[in-house]
Fold:
Amino acid sequence: MDKKDFRITAKNRLKTGAKIHAKCAHYKILKIVSNLIEIFKAKKILIFMPLFYEPNLYLLAKNFSKNRIKREFLVPFMLDVSFKMVKLRRPFEIARFGVKQPPNQNTQNGLDMAIIPCIGVDGNFARIGHGKGYYDIFFSHLKTKPIVVFVSLSDNFTKAEISQKHDLVGDFYITPKKIYLKKGKYDRVLNRLNSRCGRHFSRIFNS
Structure:
């Protein structure tokens, strides 16, 4: 299976799953991501406004705000072939591909962690996205790479190496039932996640 075929199959799985996923699938991911933010003490976090088959990270930002936990959440504002980071503010408008985004505003710089939607993740731990290249281009211009966390509502991991050199490589891949990460690099983080989340549903990625 090549990258194109994998993308079609995985995307169909996400769309089909979105029709039957209970809210608990979203909250399982949000709980893990929330713990990652606290473990890494991330202050500036890039999230995204979800499509119907993606985890609702907007709820995560609302929860931190509700509990008066100081974190700065940023979201993409689409440009021609990439995006810039802006503050998460209402009112939202509908941009390309039906994605919600805040009004145009000043670009924000500096980033501790990026939570990124994906169609799937391959054997290189690279993101398989929609094929537009927005995230790949944006991260290729960053001088300092943040912690990169991929998320999806279905487990679309493949051991096959189908990505290209320009595809963004992550540190974690979070699904409702499994956590993938590079073996050896974040073992202590994995132990803390298991302790905080109260279950051992993690699967270690062998790099």
Observations:
- The helical segments are 3-18, 23-39, 58-66, 134-140, 187-197.
